[in-house]
Amino acid sequence: MGPLALPAWLQPRSRKNAYLFIYYLIQFCGHSWIFTNMTVRFFSFGKDSMVDTFYAIGFVMRLCQSISLLELLHIYVGIEYNHLLPRFLQLTERIIILFVVITSQEEVQGKYVVCVLFIFWNLLDMVRYTYSMLSVIGISYAVLTWLSQTLWMPIYPLCVLAEGMYFTYSHLYSERRDILGIFPIKKKKM
């Protein structure tokens, strides 16, 4: 009688896949909830919904982005195959923008750029996590694969533009206000 074989669900590869599937499913559900909530709010309240986007979905967004830090651990220990440095840079950028810039500065939270960034981030993540979740269990759809590998091309530059343009503009405007406030332009008397 040979050695006992472990059941399929106890095999190391199956446990890894089950864990990754659950992780991707949780992330997909979180990002889908955010995107759906934003969409319903927009169709219900129009442009007014954009101003309080952060107040409505900020907690879930912070939770999803915090959980995404696990991906660095996944890559480091080898249960997810990806390049560590690009993923680290992407996560760091989002964490800094979300926690340092948006969460810590109340005047930024009501800006339209927050809504735009959240829409772009969640659209990308819904597609990415759906693709990854199905890939782990061996399901592949050509359209989803194409979207997962292509959607970032138009959206990522728009994210960078929205982040860089808003914060650069805000900085330059504040600088202008500070300088012109110190050195006011004197009006000539007629």
Automatic annotation (TrEMBL):
Example GO BP: very long-chain fatty acid biosynthetic process
A GO MF label: very-long-chain (3R)-3-hydroxyacyl-CoA dehydratase activity
UniProt entry keywords in alphabetical sequence: Endoplasmic reticulum, Fatty acid biosynthesis, Fatty acid metabolism, Lipid biosynthesis, Lipid metabolism, Lyase, Membrane, Transmembrane, Transmembrane helix
Pfam families in the cross-refs: PTPLA (PF04387)
Locations listed in the record: Endoplasmic reticulum membrane; Membrane
Membrane topology: Multi-pass membrane protein
Enzyme Commission number, as recorded: 4.2.1.134
Reactions catalysed according to its record: a very-long-chain (3R)-3-hydroxyacyl-CoA = a very-long-chain (2E)-enoyl-CoA + H2O; (3R)-hydroxyhexadecanoyl-CoA = (2E)-hexadecenoyl-CoA + H2O
Pathway: Lipid metabolism; fatty acid biosynthesis
Keyword Cytoplasm included in the entry's annotation: no
Transmembrane residue ranges: 21-43, 55-77, 131-149, 155-173
Domain of life of the native organism: Eukaryota
Family from the record: Belongs to the very long-chain fatty acids dehydratase HACD family.
Function: Catalyzes the third of the four reactions of the long-chain fatty acids elongation cycle. This endoplasmic reticulum-bound enzymatic process, allows the addition of two carbons to the chain of long- and very long-chain fatty acids/VLCFAs per cycle. This enzyme catalyzes the dehydration of the 3-hydroxyacyl-CoA intermediate into trans-2,3-enoyl-CoA, within each cycle of fatty acid elongation. Thereby, it participates to the production of VLCFAs of different chain lengths that are involved in multiple biological processes as precursors of membrane lipids and lipid mediators.
Name of the molecule in the record: Very-long-chain (3R)-3-hydroxyacyl-CoA dehydratase
Record organism: Saimiri boliviensis boliviensis
